[in-house]
Every structure is written in C-alpha cells, then in structure tokens.
Amino acid sequence: MPLRSKIIARGVGKAYQSRQGMLLALRDFDLEVGEGEFVCLIGPSGCGKSTFLRILAGLYEKSAGEITVHKSSADKPRNSMVFQEYAIFPWRTVLDNVAFGLKMRGLSRRDRYEIADRYIRKVGLAKFRGSYPYQLSGGMKQRVSIARAFANDPEVLLMDEPFGALDAQTRVVLQEELLRIWEEDKKTVVYVTHSIEEAIMLGDRVAVMTAHPGTNKEEFKVGFPRPRSLHIKGAAEFAELSLRIWECLEQEVKRAMEST
Ligand code: ADP
Questions:
Q1: What backbone phi and psi angles, to 5 degrees, belong to 132?
Q2: Above 60 in pLDDT, residue 257?
Q3: 193 lines ligand 1 (CB under 6 A)
C-alpha cells in the first residue's frame, strides 16, 4: 500500500551569497517522503545534503522550489533536528535538556518530566537524568539529543549525520538504539549520512545525490524486513545493495574531489 506523503519537496534550489559571488549549493532537488518512512540522503561532501535538511527544518530559506510538510495535528512541532555536533545545553541536566522542547510547548512540569523520563529510559540514561553534559561521553550526549528529538513528538525528524563524530563501536550501538526507538514511534525521518552501510541499515529508501551543486541521482529501496538488527549486514543482499549504491555514488565522489 503506498504511504501517504508527509513531505513533498519539488525543485528545491539554494544559492548562497559569498564573497566570490553566488554559490549554487542545491539545484532542482526533489524528495517525497511517506508518513512513517525513514529516508536516508547520501552524496559526496559539499553536495548540499545539510543545506537541504536545514531548509526542511526552516533554518534556511530556499531560493527556489516548493516544500510541503503535511501536519497531522496543530499541536505538534513541525520538526526536530539532531545534529552531528552535540546541540544540548551545557547548563541543563539530562532531564531538563530532554524536557526542553516540551517546556517550549507549554506542557505542565509533571507531563514534561514524565515524557522526558520515558525517553531517557529508552536511550538507557535513567541513571544520568540528573547529570550535566560535561559528565557524559560523546555517545551519551548524542543519546540525549535523540531522546529530546523523539520526546518532542515532531511531525518529522531530521537527522544530520548524528553519529558522524562518534567512534565506530559507539556508532553501531547507537544505530541499533535508534532503530529500536524508531520501531516504536515510526516517525517520518530524513537522515543524512556519509555511510552507505548506515543508510542501508536504517533506511526504507536511500536517495543518492550528485556532486555539487546537488540534485537527484538515483534512489534505492531497502527491502530488509523490520524490526532489523545488525545481523542484516551479514546477508548477501546487503553486500549486493551496498555495491550498487557505491557504483552510483563513486562517480559523484570523484567529481566532487576533482572540483575541490
Ligand atoms: P553537505 O552537507 O552535502 O556536505 P552542505 O549543504 O554543507 O553540503 O554544503 C553545500 C555547499 O554549500 C558547499 O559548497 C558549502 O561550502 C556551501 N555552504 C554551506 N553552507 C553555507 C553557508 N552558510 N554560506 C555559504 N555557503 C555555504
């Protein structure tokens, strides 16, 4: 059954004004994401992935195109974003960081702490609810960001290489945690990554972008059943799909390298 569209982006373009003149970062980019779908965006460095995500988040203005995000409720925030760098408040505890968005939405103290606590437990930080970010490892800080993003219950969740700064082992553990939490909530997610493996592991679909200025190159459906675990990495289909995506991406990565 086709999914109801949650995000429809058509012909999106972005030009930045720089000292050298206008820089076209994104051109004529289309993306459609179904309700509850997990879509990964992959492309060479500098192709405009973050730019597109920030436009979706409303942080940047687009220069061209149309974006529609269908709202399911007037109360829900349009989106929550998880960045690679730990965007949590150093002066707030884990609990207050996770509850922050709910406070902004005017929920009572009791409700916001109850919801925040639920997500803190889901990311395994129950013992650290009263800790401050400086007392946490990088992986734990990123768990706080993820808990906060889900606790906010946004229409869409936008993730910009959330595990990009973590070591490989922590990254794998957090990927599995993210999958587990997502299986329960089935949020609509747009997830930017550099890693083909991560894109296949997490996504329902992988959208490959061209080198700068980025636009659509090709899309791949990821057919592995859910709930998924890391074990799918051992499947022959996993290796086969990785190779197909790499073959699509390789030319763009080389083009991006030549132009820098
Ligand atoms: P990606 O996330 O795919 O690595 P980005 O969206 O970060 O790509 O960047 C796309 C292009 O836009 C790059 O050439 C980058 O230098 C440029 N760019 C990104 N943000 C800005 C900005 N705020 N001002 C000017 N140029 C920018």
A1: -100, 155
A2: yes
A3: no
For the chain, the straight-line distance linking the first and the last C-alpha, in angstroms and rounded, comes to 44
**Cα of 260 to ligand 1 centre, how many Å?**
13
State pLDDT tens for residues 129-188.
Answer: 999 999 999 999 999 999 999 999 999 999 999 999 899 999 999 999 999 999 998 999
Q: What is the mean pLDDT of residues 105-123?
A: 94
Start-end of H helices in 123-235: 138-151, 168-185, 196-202
Model pLDDT for residues 48-64, shown as the tens digit of each residue = 999 999 999 999 999 99
- The answer, yes or no, to whether any atom of ligand 1 lies below 6 A from the CB of 259, is no
Nearest CA to 220 out of 245, 239, 188, 251 is that of 245
Q: Whose CA is nearest to atom 27 of ligand 1?
A: 16
Q: Are 143 and 171 in contact (CB under 8 A)?
A: no
CA of 51 to the centre of ligand 1 (A): 6
Q: Is the CB of 46 within 6 Å of ligand 1?
A: yes
Phi, psi (degrees; rounded to nearest 5) at 179 = -60, -45
For ligand 1, whether the C-beta of 212 sits within 6 Å is yes
Ligand 1 atom at minimum distance from 44 CA: 3
